[in-house]
Design goal:
CATH architecture of the largest domain: Orthogonal Bundle
Number of domains: 2
Order of helices and strands: HHHHHHHHHHHHH
Largest sheet: none
Radius of gyration: 19 Å
CATH class of the largest domain: Mainly Alpha
Low-confidence stretches: none
Number of strands: 0
Structural class: mainly alpha
Number of helices: 13
Distance between the termini: 14 Å
Shape: globular
Mean pLDDT: 94
């Protein structure tokens, strides 16, 4: 059974890499040309903290507009954000609808920027001090400084953000294999279809256990669970139009 699922996962990964799963434009594919590595890291970190209960594609389109607008570009520099008063930051973040909740979203953006500035000076400084180690990053964001990383420290978004750092910022993290796949709606649907979960288990099984099942299934394939995120996401999002070979 596991051998068959592994074959199907490898096939899906290959189909994804060949562009066979239908529309394969990720929300994060909407991004500007960056002026520096730090601004790239900020761009893929701060908006990520607002990526809940909203259209991801619209969020990243708004972020791109804000980055490219000279009036609002400063919100992507954590040190600048730390020095802004609340009204100024609110005005800048709502101008292109990066922030939809003028209090909560603005506070989230400020707290993360302040934590990074006070503790490490920059995102690049944070990664350097944490030795580009996923497990150290996890401890810093989800335990030691959890209150300073609202939403970004949550189990689902933290693992996905760690994945995005590698995919879009060329960040090579040690212990990357411990990044968990986030069992969202698309991953759950695929898990049922592939036989990793039954429909009953999908509603009863804790998300940590679902992630662990994926880790066990992929053991020996050379793939980490997070490597299946995009293939599964697009396979489901495109209504399983790609047919697995029997």
């Amino acid at each position: 059974m596991i051998d068959e699922i592994q074959k199907q996962c490898l096939e899906l990964r290959g189909a994804y890499e060949e562009g066979l799963l239908g529309n394969q434009v990720m929300p994060e594919d909407t991004h500007p040309d960056f002026l520096s590595n730090e601004s790239r890291l900020s761009y893929f970190t701060l908006p990520m903290s607002l990526n809940y209960q909203r259209n991801s594609y619209a969020l990243w389109e708004a972020a791109k507009l804000a980055y490219e607008d000279t009036q609002t570009h400063a919100v992507f520099q954590v040190q600048n954000v730390t020095g802004m008063d609340a009204d100024e930051l609110r005005s800048l973040l709502t101008m292109h609808k990066v922030a939809l909740q003028p209090n909560k979203h603005v506070d989230t953006w400020r707290r993360i920027s302040t934590t990074i500035t006070d503790e490490w000076g920059s995102i690049e400084g944070m990664l350097n001090e944490l030795d580009y180690d996923f497990q150290k990053l996890q401890e810093a964001v989800q335990i030691t400084h959890k209150k300073g990383f609202p939403y970004l420290s949550g189990p689902k978004i933290f693992h996905y953000w760690s994945y995005i750092l590698g995919e879009y910022c060329d960040v090579v993290l040690k212990n990357r294999e411990y990044i968990q796949i986030a069992p969202d709606t698309h991953v759950i649907k695929c898990s049922i279809l592939l036989g990793i979960l039954t429909e009953d288990e999908a509603t009863l099984t804790p998300r940590d256990e679902i992630s662990e099942r994926w880790r066990n299934v992929l053991d020996g394939t050379g793939m980490s669970p997070i490597d299946m995120h995009s293939p599964l996401w697009f396979w489901s999002k495109n209504n399983f139009s790609y047919q697995l070979q029997k």
